[in-house]
Prior knowledge:
Layout: H1 2-27, H2 32-54, H3 65-93, H4 95-101, H5 105-117, H6 123-141, H7 154-176, H8 182-197, H9 214-239, H10 244-250, H11 254-265, H12 272-288
Helix pairs in contact: 1-3, 1-4, 1-9, 1-11, 2-3, 2-8, 2-9, 3-4, 3-7, 3-8, 4-7, 4-11, 5-7, 5-10, 6-12, 7-10, 8-9
Amino acid sequence: MRLRGLLLTLATSCLFGLGAVLAKILGEGFQPFFVSWLALSGGGLCILICQLLRRKPLLPPAMTRASWIDIFLFASIGTALPLVCIIIGLPQTGAITGSFLLQLQSPATLIFALLFLKERMRGKQLAGMLLLFVGSLLVIWRAPGSSLQFSGGWGALLVIIAAVGIGFSYIPAKRLTKYGDALQMNLLRLLVGSALFLPLLPFQTPVMLAPLTLSLVGALVLYSVANFGLGYIFLQAGIGLLQAWEASAIMQTLPLFSTVFAILLLHESLTLLQIIGGCIILVGGFLLI
């Protein structure tokens, strides 16, 4: 069971790595709130169709008041807020730098897990957290001899806020595993999350920031299905088999996948200091495991 959880979370990391690259592309083509609503709605539609084809109930049978509060926190702080920050921030930072900064979700998850889930932390996990901070600092720094500043300015800060929100999302996700399966919980997560964007859509004019092309539509469809359909389902299933901080720690492999996709799709490059920082981040992530 534990091996299954590890594999599911690793598959999520691969899909989210692709999503980091697609988010940069979409952030340059659409208004952020509009494309966030489209992505969440598209992912929710995929899960809805899947549940109908499987003839499974759409809602969990025994939801409590506390579980509905967790759904709202899951959909807002853990989903909608990070998504908007990523859509706005990644075009300013670059997919590779942004994916490295997203690894701050792991220490955030560990802190939240200690506070809310009473999970235990060992000395190696603390060392892993410190390495993650050091590695992220090197990624921001980019090159020796340059002044220490955020690469991408506010974009980097928004990605860090997204990382904290994602780290928090593991807490309600873990608590909700006892109320329903991964598809039911993520259907609620996506529907509530997309509903939160509805009041903002009338102010998103024009919705297009670039000409609509077939590749842009393809990126949106792939982003919705891979990141918010399959990715969210795999992650929720993995969290049900692992501790929250363990699932987050495995997600430290995300830079490996996002780097490959960014080089293939965006032709981005890495500085030597960013490579060193990324390696330190990965070592920190493995120490957390």
